[in-house]
Design a protein that fits this description.
Layout (H helix, E strand, L loop, with lengths): L17 H14 L27 H4 L6 E10 L5 E2 L14 E12 L5 E7 L10 H8 L8 E8 L5 E5 L3 E4 L2 E2 L7 E11 L17 H10 L9 H13 L7 H26 L9
Antiparallel strand pairs: 1-9, 2-8, 3-6, 3-9, 4-5, 4-7
Length: 287
């Protein structure tokens, strides 16, 4: 970006030692600023880019097809004793094996809370720059050395009845909010649909996996108890034990809670991995 500067870059003078030149060059780098008349200006009428071709993602291409989604219901409860929500972590949804390509969030209720916003950002590549050009990079890209290579994409206000849809290449985070009236509780409830890649075959779903609640199976066994009549308890326990040991077999409530904790740990690890990609630092150095 040398063309942005009015001052000529200094050269080492005859007889000038390296230390003196380095000091003079450093002072030049610290003092120079982009010349306003040399910063490129956008001129002429705006020309829209060519229309985006969504290909297999076009809405008419998906019309009439069965789509696979993962559903989540979430409520953030605030109370007079805990009146503030600190905000969520920046993340994209799911693991690679879940193949989530888009997210739809529907806000069911926003009761007695301050403004809640959902913020977005995306990863960007490192810009081209002249080495050690801190002032120029700051003026053109609004970036400093070691800043994360991310581009903010704004934020949407959450309100009851609103639905927000976005691709799973954007990181998003819930911004902090609190109770409006701190003398009574409040909540924010959402239902989320994670769209699984419709161009890939993902075999496991509730269409092919039987219900896994042990309590449901116990209830069915009671309803159809005639099939167990005459069998000793040990036989019944043996069959249930074999089902529980099988892959995808029924789970007790306690086992499901333990499995949920493992899933949350996995999600935390995945979020940290994604963060390393999205937040890789911009290194303004010699190259």
């Amino acid at each position: 970006m040398e063309h942005l500067y009015a001052e000529e870059e200094p050269e080492q003078l005859d007889g000038e030692d390296d230390a003196a030149f380095d000091e003079r060059y450093g002072a030049y780098m610290d003092a120079r600023r982009p010349a306003p008349d040399r910063v490129p200006r956008v001129t002429g009428p705006f020309v829209a880019p060519p229309p985006f071709d969504p290909g297999p993602w076009a809405s008419d291409a998906l019309a009439g097809r069965r789509l696979q989604v993962i559903v989540k219901l979430q409520t953030i409860e605030l109370t007079p004793e805990r009146p503030e929500y600190a905000g969520g972590a920046w993340h994209v949804e799911g693991a690679r094996n879940e193949r989530i390509v888009a997210t739809a969030i529907h806000y069911l209720e926003c009761e007695n809370i301050s403004e809640s916003r959902l913020a977005f950002r995306e990863a960007v590549r490192e810009p081209e720059y002249e080495q050690e050009d801190h002032a120029g990079v700051r003026a053109v890209f609004d970036m400093d050395d070691e800043d994360p290579l991310v581009q903010p994409r704004g934020a949407l206000r959450a309100r009851a009845g609103r639905t927000v849809c976005f691709p799973n290449v954007l990181q998003h985070a819930v911004r902090p909010f609190s109770l409006d009236d701190r003398s009574r509780p409040g909540r924010r409830t959402i239902v989320v649909f994670f769209l699984v890649d419709p161009t890939r075959d993902v075999p496991r779903s509730t269409a092919t996996v039987a219900p896994q609640q042990r309590a449901w199976l116990d209830l069915e066994l009671e309803v159809h108890s005639r099939f167990w009549r005459g069998l000793p308890d040990i036989a019944r326990d043996l069959v249930l034990g074999m089902l529980e040991d099988a892959d995808g077999g029924p789970m007790s409530h306690e086992a499901a809670l333990a499995h949920r904790l493992k899933l949350m740990e996995e999600r935390t690890f995945i979020t940290a991995e994604h963060g390393e990609v999205f937040e890789r630092p911009f290194s303004l150095c010699e190259h």
